[in-house]
Amino acid sequence: MANIKKNRLKDEVAFRRFLPLVSITLLGVFLLMFLLRINSNFATPFSDDFSQVLTNRSHARQMLSLPKQTEFSLQLEKRNQMPPRNLDLYPSLDEDHITIVLYVHNRPQYLKVAVDSLSRVVGINETLLIVSHDGYFEEMNKIVEGIRFCQVKQIFAPYSPHVFPNSFPGVSPTDCKEKDDATKKHCKGTPDQYGNHRSPKIVSLKHHWWWMMNTVWDGLKETKDHSGHILFIEEDHYIYPNAYRNLQILTELKPQKCPHCYAANLAPCDVNARGEGWDSLIAERMGNVGYTFNRTVWRKIHKKTTEFCFFDDYNWDITMWATVYPSFGNPVFTLRGPRTSAVHFGKCGLHQGQGEAKACIDNGMVNFQVEEIDTVANINSDWEVRVFEHQPGYKAGFKGWGGWGDKRDHQLCLTFAQMYHS
């Protein structure tokens, strides 16, 4: 009997010694599960701690097979986390503001004109201006840093070909060029449908637009929870003083006047047109000058990532017209006023117009006749809507202009769509 009691006592002592070990083990398991759950969701990796942000992004890069970043690329990514400037001048945004995104390349003469026009826009001080740079160019940066008329945030595409001088997505020494035969030349690359290999300067246009869209809608802490509309303009767009007020009216009228419209535009889809001057609103095919849409539309676009990334055309807008919009299953209309509130003034396109002698702004001059009627909101909420159907332009069936045949570009494009999603 004494032996039995002694054995029980030993068992109880052993159990009490073992109990803390079991508790610590279980606590470690629960903690590990909690950390894994957090790390799996890098859709919202932003915090005030820049080093933590970059650590999260490093994990994301490994999972998504993004190109190995240069030191400069990492610096740009860090700059993207900085808060907007001019908060001391404009500490708050209007409750129903429409965020404006200006995406730029390297055309400082154009950008000066666009920024000057924005400075005259009524209501610009109520909103946030995001300037998305395709790489980094000091002259472009200085122009934006001089903006004082609203809150302004700069973001820089960290995977722009312009940031990678010796490797993909820039120019790699082993890349095929023009119509090289990869087998004979022992070079890297897959040609487009016309037999041409990639040109980093060309493909950067589509990459920047897609990176920007994903970053603005799903990555930036300033906009990833934005429930309203976002306006997108380019460095060769001249914005009229009444543009913002007109856009506020259009986005408010759209659900009632044109519920089937996906967007609102500041200008006609024909970039050479200035509007009809009628007493009516216009519903037409979506244009690429001053277009604005909400998160619901962005989600529809994002679901067509495969269509966007594999269509062999280096132009983002032609890609949208020829393959993404048609895949929605019904016509993609946008609502606009009968008078334009924005004008496309670029003559050269691409990345030209960098210097005084090369600037393609009608021989260096910008001559826009902004009439008195275009300085104030000129859209009447009582107007009916005229629908333009069967307009000319790129449609389903167009096979693309090429320039987008390299499988590496396809993969990078797909990866951009997953950057902020687990």
Task: Describe what you observe in this structure.
The chain has 422 residues and is an alpha/beta fold. The protein has twelve helices and eleven strands. The protein has one domain (50-416): Alpha-Beta Complex (Spore Coat Polysaccharide Biosynthesis Protein SpsA, Chain A), CATH 3.90.550. Helices cover 36% and strands 12% of the residues. It has a nine-stranded mixed beta sheet with strand order 3-2-1-4-8-6-9-7-11. A two-stranded antiparallel ribbon has the order 5-10. Strand 1 (99-104), helix 4 (108-119) and strand 2 (128-133) form a beta-alpha-beta unit. Mean pLDDT is 86; it is low at 1-15, 29-51 and 349-360.
CATH topology: Spore Coat Polysaccharide Biosynthesis Protein SpsA, Chain A
% residues in beta strands: 5-15%
Name given to the CATH architecture:
Alpha-Beta Complex
Number of DSSP E strands: 11
The first-to-last residue Cα distance is 63 Å
* SSE succession: HHHEHEHEHHEEHEEEHHHEEEH
Tally of domains:
1
The low-confidence parts are 1-15, 29-51, 349-360
| Average pLDDT number | 86
Identify the strand order in the major beta sheet. Answer: 3-2-1-4-8-6-9-7-11
Structural class: alpha/beta
Quaternary structure annotation: single chain
Q: For the report, how would you describe the main beta sheet? A: 9 strands, mixed
- How much helix is in the residues? 25-40%
Give me the CATH superfamily.
Answer: Spore Coat Polysaccharide Biosynthesis Protein SpsA, Chain A
Main location: Golgi
Protein name: Alpha-1,6-mannosyl-glycoprotein 2-beta-N-acetylglucosaminyltransferase
Pathway: Protein modification; protein glycosylation
GO molecular function: alpha-1,6-mannosylglycoprotein 2-beta-N-acetylglucosaminyltransferase activity; metal ion binding
